[in-house]
Fold this protein.
Amino acid sequence: MKKLLPILVVVMLFVAVGTGYFAYSAYKDNVDKSVPASTYKDTEMEAELDNKEVETKVEDTKDKGKSNLNNSLSIELIEIIHRDPSQDGVYDYRLGAKQIITNHTDKDIKGFIGETYFYDMFGELIFTIDLKYEWKLIPANDSIEFYGEAGLNQFKDGDMRFFYLPFENMTFDYKISSIIFNDGTTISE
């Protein structure tokens, strides 16, 4: 019996390995039959299309000034203020933005929403912030000065790159998507 035990172990190992191999082969054959050969090529094409969509979205953000609503309202970024927690006694990294908002319509604007885009000096999009204004009225055919702040995450490289980028090395753009007038009417894109 002691002489048969090593032989039995070796035979059982061969059976286990053989069973695993045949099970894997059967599984692989079924998977290959259920997925047409063109799927791999289609997946590559989809990935390529996804990349083109991303490139298109980045390119689109460079042309935000062509929005019809941007003709009704303009925003000029006049200063960026860095608020570092180690210096200002605040709890997080914050960027303040002084802006001049100009209403080009014949109605008072009560509020608006949109997006802002910040680019480095090479034209690369470095930061996007949702824009929502709902404070004091912006008189018809007049301008107001506005100050807003955004909190940044010190553990995100993109946020910190934006925080430390000098104002003179950045450009600013925006897209207004909806404007609410004081009379209750709304225009949206």
